[in-house]
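Section handout 9: paired folding examples.
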Amino acid sequence: MSNSLYTLAQQLEQAIRTSEDFQQLKRAYEAVRRDETAYRMFNHFRQLQLQLHEKQFTGAAISPEEVEQAQKAMALTQQNEKLSTLMALEQRMSMTIADMNQIIMKPLEELYRSFAE
């Protein structure tokens, strides 16, 4: 692979780090970290998410109780202003990265599509 692609990828990384969206996300994380209640809720919610993702990944069944527990944790999280702001900013950043991934993958998709024709 061309070194210029890696150089561009590193430039993109720096552009993400210095973007206003990322800086807002970073500030939101710092605000949650400074708030003991929000930080504890955040860690609890993330732990539940990780457990459920791991179960999904391994094909293990997720019990109705686990789903209910996750829904309750999500509802509590959304009631906390700092956490709801953080989650909205995380979602926006995730969408931006997904959009960039679509752009990056376009040449391969076009190539694959040309084989199917």
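Moving on to protein 2 of 2.
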Amino acid sequence: MITDEQLNSYRLSGEMVRVVRDGIEDNDVKGIVVAWNDEQVMIRRRNRKVVKLDRKYIYQPFDEPRANPEA
């Protein structure tokens, strides 16, 4: 699970993140961290829609190679 410090770093920098939810790359969510609580993270996508995602997913900078969720 991603830490509050990591989420705050992403929020303050405005860095685009990738949320890896499963093994299919098309299901990744790309956007900017807006807010979070103990269970969920709010991500603003490029089309300005906000989605709530579980904190158990893999959060990584968008410009890094995609992480493998099975590893």
